[in-house]
Every structure is written in structure tokens, then in C-alpha cells.
User: Fold this.
Amino acid sequence: MFSSLKRFLIGRPLKSNELGEQKLTKLKALAILSSDALSSVAYGPEQILLVLMTVSAAAFWYSLPIAVGVLILLVALILSYRQIIFAYPHGGGAYVVSKENLGLYPGLIAGGSLLVDYILTVAVSVSAGTDAITSAFPSLHPYTVIIAIAFVLFITLLNLRGVTESASILAYPVYLFVLALFILIGVGLFHIATGSVASNLHAPVGTPVAGIGLFLLLRAFASGSSALTGVEAISNAIPNFKDPAPNNAARTLIAMGSLLALLFSGIVYLAYDYGVAPRPEVTVVSQIAEQTFGRNFMYYFIQGTTALILVLAANTGYSAFPLLAVNLAKDKFIPRMFTIRGDRLGYSNGIIMLGLLSIVLIVGFRGQTEHLIPLYAVGVFIPFTLSQTGMMVKWFREKPKGWVLKLLINSTGALISLLVSIIFFVTKFAQVWSVLIFLPVIILIFHRIRKHYEDVGDQLRISESEPALSIEGNVMILPVAGITQVVENSLNYVKSLSPHQIIAVHVPFNREDEALFEEKWEKWQPGIRLVTLHSPYRSIIQPLTKFIDTVQRKASESNYQVTVVIPQFFPKKGWHNILHNQSSLLIRAHLLFRRNVIVTTVPYHLKK
Amino acid sequence: MFSSLKRFLIGRPLKSNELGEQKLTKLKALAILSSDALSSVAYGPEQILLVLMTVSAAAFWYSLPIAVGVLILLVALILSYRQIIFAYPHGGGAYVVSKENLGLYPGLIAGGSLLVDYILTVAVSVSAGTDAITSAFPSLHPYTVIIAIAFVLFITLLNLRGVTESASILAYPVYLFVLALFILIGVGLFHIATGSVASNLHAPVGTPVAGIGLFLLLRAFASGSSALTGVEAISNAIPNFKDPAPNNAARTLIAMGSLLALLFSGIVYLAYDYGVAPRPEVTVVSQIAEQTFGRNFMYYFIQGTTALILVLAANTGYSAFPLLAVNLAKDKFIPRMFTIRGDRLGYSNGIIMLGLLSIVLIVGFRGQTEHLIPLYAVGVFIPFTLSQTGMMVKWFREKPKGWVLKLLINSTGALISLLVSIIFFVTKFAQVWSVLIFLPVIILIFHRIRKHYEDVGDQLRISESEPALSIEGNVMILPVAGITQVVENSLNYVKSLSPHQIIAVHVPFNREDEALFEEKWEKWQPGIRLVTLHSPYRSIIQPLTKFIDTVQRKASESNYQVTVVIPQFFPKKGWHNILHNQSSLLIRAHLLFRRNVIVTTVPYHLKK
Assistant:
């Protein structure tokens, strides 16, 4: 039943050699890998204006030079990551680049930040999309958390069905959003050119503004830069592309960068020219759309696709997290299960874990995840900085053809990213200090896990110095509760193995039972030695384990191996189990977990 | 750690032969077995007045003849149960008496009613005691349920420590309560005799009252009879008495009956003479105490001991339930575990089950268990009727010396009990109809359980017609995940048993791994046959079980037994388990529960 539900939800299992069919075309890859970055257009420009507004509306013209700064950073990042894609065509992004060029710790910092960051991406973007929906339909407000969880489950299932299937479904809303924004920007610019809307309402560029300072401008710049989160996703997900994967990934990256640059600058310019000021209840994009179209179909189309893309931004996390997890798991820093492909060839453990953890975050913050945004931005700019720095080191070391230009590009990227990271720490310390706690903790956990895997590897490796068990003979112990068919079965089995010694053990609770049982046994199996362990405290396990320890001590002197053979009957129906004490289960668990004794279970399935 | 906590809470385990020291003297037995019956004095008289009040205060004089009726019923029950004690000196009470004389179904009805009834006793009396406490300290009111649960846990623990220990502790409050009530009644009567309180305030006996009818009087009588619940407890618990158990039990029963009769009639008389009318916020006993002593130390002493005895009434359930459960479990109607004596020689499973179920009731009803009282009274009077009827049949059949008198006593008891049961059904049907549902359900469950035990017995019995497994040879299958120390150990073990065939099985997920592993294996263990099962869907269990099925089909043709030997390593620390997929656990569970294959686990305990 469980398996047919699974079939229904995620589809039939795929063979390993069908993996090729699970690769993405550029068009689909652009849709699912850029939804995070593109969705930031919906809130990035607003973040800049919010900071400037703290001084005065006259300062709004600064949004234009700040946007230019963000665009420069964007170009630097896109070019830098393009170089990373070609240099590391198997993916892995910031983690692999930092680890290989800067060393283990920078790699782990980058990997740990991104791992946490993708969980934040999912939680934050799903919550934002849910907010957009509950704002439109206030009666849904009490169900915010449930709706958000439903979205996470939906996206998780979609990703469990496989990356191509999720891409086919998710491509539509992403491209509709891009289309909607292009129409908005185009019509807006046309209005401005024809003078059909009131424009130029803000103070003109260059107006001196009292109280504006470098610190504030940097804060506005950092806030605007949060629109660039998600730019690194493609570099993690190269293995998902059709061949030639690096070329396709690089082209997709350039396409994403161009779209992002156009939409971002268009929105910033329209906002400035329309004289839009951020208002708590209406978003900047919504104000622009209203001024451009009025409240007609186009307005609702823009609002609807915006809400949708906010939710779907989560999908970028689903594409990048499992692949990053595979890289970390291959290096033994996180559990090995993340390297296992599920029925549909996706890394389903990573997908499920991401879904679960983001639900935990959503529930923990009751859907109010906005104050996680700065944390989430820092979590991206730290690995940005590290990976660009790693590339700098790489070019400097390897000095390939044209390395100076490459070094220059990555240096610019590294410098600006570092700057943004520092600005975040300085200006929003109250919201990001926790990074300084959880990054060391995560790295410690990584190390503990790796240490364990290495220990296990050492111990499992076949070594000449520690030869395996050498067995000269076998002693078999058979705990018997009564004279039954189950015991007879087990006894016949033990006899068929012809060990050197068979000992049947019975644990009576009083002397009368003891004598009675010994007598009955002697009649039934006169050839098999019976040991009775009178248990005045009515425990079966204690005297039994004590006895087994004694036998084992003796046996090991002459390299004899002790096996405990447990007769166990299985009732036909599950509920019957509560009617039996099932000492056999207890005995087995006790013996296996505490002692070095081999345990054989002889099952006897009841038929009625 | 768990075991030292257990030691601390319930004490060191006792040897089975220390059972004699766990027997009760008459004085202690009276305390713990009569707390239920005696506590009813605190509310029984009030129940009568509450019914009469629905007509008019002039009807209160009827409480005197009704009390006489209750006393007659009490005498009949005490004498009847005295005869039961001597006739069934091993205890078992209503269940055994009904089963032996009336047949299986009446026995099960009696047993089922009492089983449920003791759970109700605990829930109702603890809730009533808690109510008394929270009435005195209203700030505790929000914690009613928690306090009630704490009381249940306390009494459960006390009983797990053993019956003598609980009796030693609980005897004090019971005797203090008896003492307090005797002082109250004595001083009250003295006041009346000396005329120092206003008395004779009610309408005199014989005053005609309009609107009084037989139905109402019967209802009042039935309500007053609920004070007699708990009278049967001693007959269930004879095995807890010191030798000669029946004589001691009979004397204890008489003592209890006398105390109950004296206290009950004293309270009824004082209530009538003082002209006390039931008030919602103050109990009748509290009003009598206040009029007798004013609000001084004695008043609070009476109130305190009353609250205490209400809680301790639960203890009667703890004495009788486990012994009734033993009787039902010996007849295979309830799980066998109820016949097992715990560390302190009490039937701890019964004690724990009673505690758990009453907590469930308390939580389910949020501590408001008052409306369970009629249900609880019916649950007592049904077995009363059945056991007395059973005794009638017994005397009639056996006709021992003086049987006519004995028959007469039990007939009176049976008749009045039947009458009370009918009155309950007629007058309080809305509260007791559920008995008609749950009794048949319980009896059905009893039968299902017994049927299962009988089926199991049939199947486990060694029979000539179905001979046990005959084994001509052994095939051992060893699933191997890699070439490791764990596998080498298991392989050495398998070789030492020299079976007819050893098959190592490996499940690779792709063709390259397959070829590589075959090559490595050939170098390492050239003598052992390796089968690789390529798994295109990346499942280990499916191809493995399919293979085992095939081998088993072939093997069974020539009576060969198949054993699957599973190498399993155990990490040193619990949390390490999440780092390993532990396919071995899954494989073992799958094989044991679904197939008839013997499974051997070769443990390998990691040292770091």
C-alpha cells in the first residue's frame, strides 16, 4: 500500500541508465536555477529605497548610482562564476573551489554556509510567496503556516519526481514572470517617453541631500545586493545539464545575468522616475504596475506571477542543495545517505532533508521568516568571497593563457563580495551574529562525522596485523521456554550443523518447575545437555547473559565460537504480538548490542 | 541508569520465596481494602438527600427508612461475600463464582464489569479527592488534571513497591478518617442528647409529602447504594492475606461492614437531625462538622482526612484489579503478561496498566469524572447480582449442611442487587447505557484473545502428524557489501560450520562496480562462490529476497535448509547509527517477518 502511494506520488522507479534522460536543456535549467535570482527583482529595488527613505525622499536619486554598483557586482559575479564553471565542470561551486585552492577550512565554511543557506532560501521564499497570497485573500491569513508547509511539500514531491519533470512544470510561471516584468518595463518606459504619465517626480540626480553619509549608502548597497543571492546556484548544478554541460551551464548563466540586469535596472529606473516611495502595505512593483496599467488584468497578472515566482524561488534550493550535499557526503563530512540516488534518480535524501528542515524553520518562526533575510544574504556572500578568492589563488598558481584578465575579474568579484559581507556584519550585526555561532558548530559536526567514517574505515579494512576471527569449533546455546514445535525446529537445525557442543538452557522461576522441566526434557531429548538456571528474581535475560558470558570465556580459550540460537515464533497478525512476551526479541537485542556473540533466529510462522 | 532509577523508586527486587513476607495482617488489609467502601460514607448520604430534595425538604425524613434499606443490603452483601470467601478461598470473587456456577458468559460479564470498574474507581476517586483539595485551595484549580495524575502515579509507585509497603503507609490516613468520623458522630450525638445544638429541624418521620412516589424512593435508594461499591474487594484479594487467609479475610470483611454500617447510619442520622440540606459548594459532611465543632481544628481535621480517603479509595482498585487480571489471564482471556510477578512480587503489569488506563480516563474527561459514578455503580451491582446468584446455584446443587440459611442469605443479596441494578438502568439510563455497548465488546475481545492463545497452543504442540523440520543439509547465503573485516569474520564463521554450500551475494548498482567487485573477490576468496545481482533500480532488498526465494525453492526439494548470515557492525556510540545505512537491519527484518528463512547475525563491535 505504501509502495503504491509512493508510485502515485513520485512515479515509477527509473533504472540507473535512464539518468541521461534526466538532464536539463538550457531553457528548462534557466527556469529552475534562476527562479531564486530573478525573484529578487521583486524585492531588491525596494530594499534600496527603504534604506534611503530613512534620510529623506530627496535621497531617492541615489538609488540610481547604487543600482549601478549592484550591476557592477552582478557582472563581476557572473563573469567569475563563468570561469568557475569551466574550471570545475563537475560542479560543486564554492565548496569545491574554496577547498581545492584555499584549503579545507575555507571549503567547509563555504559549504556549511551554503548548506544552511539553501534551507533558509526555501523557508524565506515560500513564506514570502505565502504572504503575497494571504495579503490578496486575507481570510486565508490564519492558515499561513499550513499553506507554506503545503507549498514545501508540493515542491518537495515535484523534485522527488525528478529534475526534468519539475523543470517542465516550473518553467511556465518563471517565464510568465519574466514576460510580465518586460511588458511592465516596456510599457512604463513608453509612457515616460511619450510623457503620458507624471514622471520625474523625485529630486533630480545630483541634488545634495543633508544627512546622507557613506555608511548609509553602503547599507543601501548591501541591501540591494541581496538581490544577487542565487547567482551561484548554476555552478553547483552543472551535473544536471545536458552535454556539453559546462558550455550549456555557462550560457545559461550569462542568460540569467542579462535577464537579472535588465529587470533590476528597469524596475529601479521606473521607481525613480515614477517617484515611488516604499509603503508598508503595497510593494514597489505593485505601485509601478498600478501607475502603469491601473487596476486591470495586467496589474493582477503581474501580481500573480510575482507571488508564484516567490514560492518557486525555493526550487533553486532544491536543485543546488542535494548536489552540494553529495559533494560534502563524498568527502565524508555529512552522512553517506546523501550520495544515494532515489527511485527517480534524484538525490532524494537531500531533497527530503531540505524539505523537512525548511518546514521546521517555517513552523519555528510561525511563517514570519523575514528577519532571516539578512542571515541568508550573509550566508551567500561569505561563499561568494571565498570562491572568488579561491579562483584568484588558482590563476596565480597556474598562470594559464590570459590569466591576468581572469585574475582581474575574480579579484573584482572577491573584493566587492568581501565588502558586501563586511557591510552586512557592520550594519546588521543584530541579525547576523548567529552565523558566528552556527558556522563553527557546523564545521565541528562535519569533523566529528568525518572522524567517525575514517575510524570505521580503519577498523573495517582487512589488515594483516589484526587477523579476523579464527574458529576452531562451535558451541551452540539454545534458550528454550518449553517443549514445543518451535524448539524442536531449532534443535533440528542446530543438530544439522553438528557443532562441537549443544547446550539447551531453560530459566525456571521456581524449583518445582525446574525439576518438572528437567524430567520432561530428559524423556524428550535425552542426548542434548540441558542447563537450568533457576532465577529467584524472575528475570530471564540476566541469568541467561551471565551463563553465556561464562560459556564464552571458556570457549574463547580454545578459539571456540559461541552461537545463541533463538527459536522465535511470529504470530499471523500484528496485534497478536501484544499477547506474547516475545522474550526472544529482548534476548536478541540484548545479546547483539552488548556482547560479541553470534545470534541465529529460527523463525516459526504461525498459520492462524 | 534506568535500573538504578527503578531501584530508587520501587526498591530492590525480591526473591520469589520472599512472597510470604508480602502478606497482609488483618489491620493493614482492612486499611487498604476498605478505603473504597469507607470513603463512600463521605458522599453516599448526600446522594440520598440530593434525590429527595427534588421533591421538597419535607421529604428528607425518608432518608432514614432508605438508610435502613441500604443497611439491609449491606448486611446481605457482607454475609454473602463471607460465604464466598470460604467457598472460594483462593480469591477471584465474582468472576470465579459466576463462571463456576453460572457458566462462562456470566463469568465474563462479571469479570469484564469489574475490570472496567476498578479503572473507574481509580479515576473517579482520585478526581474526587483532587476536587476536595482544589476546593480548599482555589489557586490550584488550573492544575486539577496534573494533580490527579500525580496522585495516580504516586499510588501506582506505592503499589509497585509491594502491597505491604503501600499498606503500611496508607493505613494511617484510613484509620485517621475512621477516627475523625467517630469523633464527629459521637460529639454530634452528645450535642443532640444534651440539646446543645438546634436539632429536629426536619419534618418528623411519617410526615406525608406531596409528590413522593415509589420511583423517586427507589432512585434515592439506588443512589445511597452506591456507597456499597468496594464491598467485593476483599473477596478478590484473599491471596494477599496472611494464613489462614480465608478466616482473616472473613473477619476483615465483617470489620469493614460494621465500620461502614456505623459511619453510614451515623452520618445519615446527624444530617437528618441537624436539618442539613445539600448545598452545591459545601458537602453534607462538611456542614455537619461545622455545626458540631465550628471552624476549628477538628473541622479541618475531618475535611483533610476526607480528602485523603477519597484519593486513597483508589488503592482498593490497585489491590483487586491485578488479582482479577491474574484470574482472567490464567484462563487466557487477557494477555498472559498479567500473570507475571514484578520485581517486588506484585503483579506489576496489572498495576501499571490500571494506572495508565485511569490516567487516560482522567485526561479524557479533564478530571470531571463525576458523571462516571452511575456507570461505576452499575459496574459493581451487575457482578454483585451474578456472584450471589452463582452462590444460590451452588448451595442448591451441593446442599451442604445448613444450606437453606446460606441459600436464603445469598438469595436476599442477589435479589436486592438485581433490584438496584434494574433501578440504575431505569432511572439513570442516559448515564449507564454505554455498559450495554462496552460489555459485549469486552467479551468479544476476551474471546478473540482466548481463541488466539488456543490456536498458538495447537500449533506449538509437538505432534506426530506434523513432524518438525527435517534437515538433510545446509546452504548458507552471505550478503556482502564490500571486502571488509566484518565480511571476513562472517565468512570464517560460515566456513567453520562447513555447510554443503556457501554463496556470497553482492548487489552492485552499476556494471562497472559489478566487474570490479567480481575481480577483487576472485583474488580474495577464490574458493567461495560469488553471485552478483545487478540492481538497476538501486534496491538491495528486492533482488536479494528474490534470489533467496529461488535458492530456497531449490533447496527445499532436497530438504536443505537455507540460512542467511548477515555481517553487521555496531558503532560505538548511538548517534553514529544515523551515519550508516544499516541495510543489514532492514534485510534481517524483511527476511524474518516475510519468509521462513533462518537468519544469523554476526556482530562486529567497533572499538572507536
About this structure: The mean pLDDT of chain B is 87.
